[in-house]
């Protein structure tokens, strides 16, 4: 048979491609539920890490079932609210219902007004008074997201208890530090987001100014990551955007919420144009 | 075992090692050698991909139209890489490592060892020798990966496979070792050692 004829070549490549596509589709479908279970446990362990119940490495060691059990043990209530702090839905604690990055992505579009629809912001309240909320945004190469834990508000102001961030494809060793560098995540502890200005939270060069005794001023600034300017800025914008949506929930009216989102959008269009 | 088959299996491990002699697959060998676990999973993934894609393409070798043979190779290799990635994501034990290796699993497809062995060997040989050639080349790659990872994890984190080895003796982890340039220095040392043992590799 002439394997170099045009008809043979076209038929051959078509058959190969269809065959490979079919194999991949079957495998992907049959493994989907397992992958989703892994992703869910991973997300829960990120929330628990942010809330200070342990470290990510510890949760990795104890396995999926134990992570979900720990979550069910510690969680007090989980629900979604809209930007006016009106409760929308309860999230099932029995099924450990949470918001995976795919769901956060949709909410991110809604918050920024890039899609029409009801905004549903998840809130996770733990028995020890810690509240965990997610953030989601754009890094340098792909999406970044994370979970920020807040202490119970004192005198109407909230402080950060902890944070954990994850990313899809930030540069290893630079942007990936938002996930891999515990020191960077530790910088968030004790900081106070400032809802009265458009920069609710700032990740900037130098971080907080120093007191006379060389301790850091408690404010809304932390030091950015050297060599990862775009990732730091992306995280800054993601936190600003999401916290402005949560402003009413934290009982801190944010007069500049719309301004924040508009600023984030122009920033992004600029980045796209470049 | 005849001499030719022996040559197929053992040549890529030392004399014709894909990393140190053919200088293929350098990029990933710098990127994934921070921990032994990561290097081991990467090595096994590459062995599976090179072995099975060589086998499949060797079985198909007489039917592939020569004008589109690179495309057909690419389709088969891509399928294997996606399969490996999907399977790693599905198990609790490997999910975290897959996340850590992130893009590098997907980038196995661009690893010159895979396509190189298919072009040079699998398309001209019977399936069983092709399978062995693929596995041997993957193993040669994996061996270097593990050697580099051994030194990087031991000196960079003071651990091996996550178990504390040096830290208990008050060892302070060396951050330079964690960074990619150190992997290149180590790789240079391995090439140096190999060339001084195997004189016929030295240029006159």
Question: What is this entry, summarized?
Answer:
By secondary structure, chain A is an alpha+beta fold.
Task: List strands and helices in order, with pairings.
The complex is a heterodimer of chains A (about 270) and B (about 200).
Chain A: H1 6-50, H2 56-62, H3 64-74, E1 75-81, E2 87-90, H4 101-111, E3 121-126, E4 131-138, E5 143-150, E6 160-167, H5 177-180, H6 182-186, E7 202-204, E8 221-223, H7 229-246, H8 257-273
Parallel strand pairs in A: 7-8
Antiparallel strand pairs in A: 1-2, 1-3, 3-4, 4-5, 5-6
Helix pairs in contact in A: 1-3, 7-8
Chain B: H1 3-10, H2 26-31, H3 36-60, H4 69-90, H5 92-101, H6 103-106, H7 112-120, H8 127-156, E1 159-160, E2 163-164, H9 175-178, H10 180-197
Antiparallel strand pairs in B: 1-2
How would you portray this structure in words?
- Chain A is an alpha+beta fold and 274 residues long.
- Chain A has one domain (6-273).
- Helices cover 43% and strands 17% of the residues of chain A.
- Chain A contains 8 helices and 8 strands.
- Chain A has helices at 6-50, 56-62, 64-74, 101-111, 177-180, 182-186, 229-246, 257-273; strands spanning 75-81, 87-90, 121-126, 131-138, 143-150, 160-167, 202-204, 221-223.
- The longest helix of chain A has 45 residues, at 6-50.
- The radius of gyration of chain A is 22 Å and the shape is globular.
- Chain A starts with 5 loop residues before the first helix and ends with a helix.
- The mean pLDDT of chain A is 87.
- With 204 residues, chain B is mainly α.
- Chain B has one domain (3-145).
- Chain B has helices at residues 3-10, 26-31, 36-60, 69-90, 92-101, 103-106, 112-120, 127-156, 175-178, 180-197; strands spanning 159-160, 163-164.
- A two-stranded antiparallel sheet of chain B has the order 1-2.
- In chain B, strand 1 and strand 2 form a beta hairpin.
- Chain B starts with a helix and ends in a 7-residue tail after the last helix.
- At the A-B interface, helix 1 of A face helix 4 and helix 5 of B.
């Amino acid at each position: 048979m002439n394997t170099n004829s045009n008809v043979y070549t076209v038929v051959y490549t078509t058959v190969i491609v269809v065959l490979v596509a079919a194999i991949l589709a079957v495998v992907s479908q049959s493994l989907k539920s397992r992958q989703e279970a892994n992703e869910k446990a991973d997300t829960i362990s990120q929330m628990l890490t942010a809330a200070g119940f342990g470290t990510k490495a510890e949760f990795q060691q104890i396995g999926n079932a134990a992570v979900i059990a720990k979550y069910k043990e510690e969680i007090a209530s989980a629900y979604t609210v809209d930007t006016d702090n009106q409760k929308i839905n309860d999230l099932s604690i029995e099924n450990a219902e949470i918001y995976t990055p795919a769901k956060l992505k949709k909410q991110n579009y809604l918050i920024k007004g890039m899609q029409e629809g009801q905004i549903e912001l998840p809130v996770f309240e733990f028995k020890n008074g810690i509240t965990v909320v997610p953030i989601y945004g754009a890094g340098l190469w792909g999406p970044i997201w994370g979970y920020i834990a807040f202490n119970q508000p004192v005198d109407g102001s909230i402080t950060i208890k902890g944070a954990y961030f994850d990313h899809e494809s930030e540069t290893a060793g630079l942007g990936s530090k938002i996930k891999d560098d515990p020191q960077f995540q530790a910088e968030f502890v004790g900081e106070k987001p400032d809802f009265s200005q458009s920069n609710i939270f700032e990740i900037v060069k130098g971080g907080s100014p120093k007191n006379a005794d060389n301790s850091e001023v408690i404010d809304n600034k932390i030091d950015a990551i050297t060599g990862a300017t775009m990732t730091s800025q992306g995280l800054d914008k993601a936190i600003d955007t999401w916290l402005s949506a949560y402003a009413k929930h934290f009982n801190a009216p944010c007069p500049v919420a719309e301004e924040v989102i508009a600023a984030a959008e122009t920033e992004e269009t600029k980045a796209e144009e470049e | 075992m005849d001499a030719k088959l022996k040559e197929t299996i053992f040549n890529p491990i030392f004399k014709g090692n894909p990393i140190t002699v053919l200088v293929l697959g350098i990029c990933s060998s710098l990127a994934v050698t921070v921990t032994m676990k990561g290097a081991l999973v990467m090595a096994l993934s590459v062995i599976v991909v090179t072995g099975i894609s060589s086998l499949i393409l060797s079985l198909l070798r007489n039917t592939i139209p020569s004008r589109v043979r690179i495309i057909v190779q690419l389709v088969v290799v891509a399928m294997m890489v996606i399969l490996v990635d999907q399977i790693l994501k599905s198990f609790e034990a490997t999910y975290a490592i897959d996340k850590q290796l992130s893009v590098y699993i997907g980038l196995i497809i661009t690893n010159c060892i895979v396509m190189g062995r298919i072009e040079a060997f699998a398309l001209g040989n019977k399936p069983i020798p092709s399978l062995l050639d693929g596995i041997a080349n993957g193993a040669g790659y994996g061996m270097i990966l593990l050697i580099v990872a051994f030194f990087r994890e031991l000196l960079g984190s003071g651990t091996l496979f996550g178990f504390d080895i040096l830290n208990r003796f008050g060892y302070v982890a060396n951050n330079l070792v964690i960074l990619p340039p150190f992997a290149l220095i180590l790789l240079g040392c391995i090439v140096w050692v190999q060339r001084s043992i195997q004189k016929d590799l030295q240029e006159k």
